[in-house]
Amino acid sequence: MKSFLSGIALAWGMACLPNAGAHDLSVTECQEGRDFIRNAALSRDQGLSREEFIGRMQGDLELIKAFPPDLRWFVQDTDDEHLLVGAAEKVFDAPDDPERHGDEFLTSCFASIDRVTRR
Asked: Which residues of the chain form beta strands (DSSP E)?
């Protein structure tokens, strides 16, 4: 499990195209976020506690903040962070099927994209 979360931290810290201003989520980022949330639920089902998962996630987020926003995956601003952390917390606070958690995240993420495109 430790290597899985370390891999997620590396993915967060790498490979995002530079942009100006607030971060507008892409469809690909939403799909990758969905996978992350689904995997969080699978980790929960394998016995990882909320405290362990969220604690590691928060530690990874702090580490990632050392990188400029345009070099991070997904968590480039506080809106991204709230979306991802909120979904991860829900995995543990309101347990459900991993696929359902992932799909709920994807719906929320797409709604975020839709709000941005209406501006």
From this structure: none
